[in-house]
Specification:
With 383 residues, the chain is an alpha/beta fold. Helix content is 43%, strand content 13%. It has a six-stranded mixed beta sheet with strand order 6-5-4-7-8-9. Strands 1-3-2 form a three-stranded antiparallel beta sheet. Residues 1-7, 87-120 and 122-132 have low confidence and may be disordered.
């Protein structure tokens, strides 16, 4: 089972607006004639620990399974869910708006397939912001178009919604109870206490280790609209994930893990900018990877994932880039290339850098907005 992030735990722990909204939604279902019990609400609360609560479709399906007992009630549930979670007021309000109690003649109650009843319900629910996620309106906004206030709002959400990649079995073993393979050495040693009779079989299983993530962020001039936001994303990842290394490159490679982890966000970014004399310069990805493979390559653990963030506008040696990408493939289990230009519908990877790198890339994804970060999260959680 994939472990959930500290951000999801923060959203689900204790008394939060999310819990209050669940209670209000259950009250609405009761007023519509659906027999939702307290036990079902508790079941839904427990189930949310096993899904991503920021994924609307997953949340809706889980709520339907937990709260609905009859198939004929599903259409009414779907309409109530869409109206409530899309049209409700901001969860930041201390006093939520009252949900109307529909009468028996209400179109919403009388016909699950009639959509006219949603009009009255929508008028009584504020359309200002989504109750499901306060920042959902910013999910599809390009990072380059965000204001400073919007960027800070998404960063706060990002810090709450980070993930932990699934653990990997290591080469070392640990004693276990009744599961795992037989530990012959421990079994024989214990049998000496009973005249060499093996009354109990000792077992062992492999220890788990956290999968290593290695980030490479392009901070050249063409990446300027995205560099700051992406460095803050990587800082948040490095704070949560102990087995995480961060590198930035333009014309040369710089190791930033310690600088980004120290101090506040602004202080960390200032220290990072001072450590990157070539910030905003050209891009020489091949030279940067050669430095990494020569100086840090042996420190990469088995099962590591390399995540390169660049638009592919490379002005360096293309043959060198091909060779170093091939060497990197031998050191890591997976290479993910994130390109902010991929978010454009008419983009094609025609630059020399992208053409040289793509044969060695396992996953080629966009990284231009918050929803693309969630896509990356889902990929890493399911490795």
């Amino acid at each position: 089972m994939v472990s959930r992030s500290g951000g999801h735990r923060a959203a689900l722990d204790g008394e939060s607006h999310f819990h209050r909204n669940l209670v209000r939604f259950a009250a609405l279902l009761r007023r519509l004639g659906l027999g939702v019990t307290t036990s079902q609400i508790l079941t839904l609360t427990d189930a949310l620990w096993h899904i991503d609560p920021f994924e609307r479709a997953d949340f809706k399906n889980t709520a339907c399974i937990a709260l609905i007992s009859r198939v004929e009630d599903i259409p009414l549930f779907n309409r109530a869910f869409d109206a409530f979670w899309r049209l409700s007021a901001s969860p930041l309000k201390s006093t939520p708006p009252e949900v109307p109690r529909p009468s028996a003649e209400s179109p919403l109650v009388s016909s699950a397939h009639n959509t006219t009843g949603l009009g009255d319900l929508s008028e009584n629910l504020s359309t200002r912001r989504s109750l499901y996620s306060p920042e959902e309106a910013l999910f599809d906004r390009d990072f380059a178009e965000l204001t400073e206030e919007e960027r800070q709002a998404l960063l706060r959400l990002l810090e709450r919604s980070l993930w932990f990649p699934p653990d990997l079995p290591s080469r070392r073993f640990r004693p276990t109870g009744h599961r795992g393979r037989i530990d012959l050495r421990r079994t024989l040693r214990k049998s000496l206490q009973y005249g060499s009779e093996a009354f109990w079989l000792r077992r062992r299983s492999r220890k788990l280790k956290q999968r290593q993530l290695v980030f490479f962020c392009d901070v050249s001039g063409s990446m300027e609209p995205y560099s700051r936001m992406l460095l803050q994303f990587m800082r948040a990842a490095s704070v949560r994930l102990r087995n995480c290394e961060i590198f930035a490159f333009s014309t040369q490679l710089s190791h930033l893990t310690r600088r980004l982890r120290s101090g506040s966000v602004e202080e960390a970014l200032r220290n990072t900018a001072r450590a990157l004399p070539d910030w905003g310069g050209g891009t020489r990805t091949g030279r940067a990877l050669r430095t990494f493979n020569a100086s840090w390559g042996r420190a990469v653990s088995s099962g590591a994932v390399a995540i390169l963030i660049s638009d592919g506008w490379d002005c360096g040696d293309i043959e060198l880039l091909k060779r170093e990408m091939q060497h990197l493939c031998l050191r890591v289990s997976r290479i993910v290339w994130l390109n902010p230009l991929l978010g454009s519908t008419d983009y094609e990877p025609l630059t020399r850098g992208m053409q040289a790198a793509l044969p060695f890339v396992d996953d080629f994804l966009p990284i231009h907005n918050f929803r693309s970060l969630l896509q990356l999260k889902r990929l890493l959680e399911n490795l």
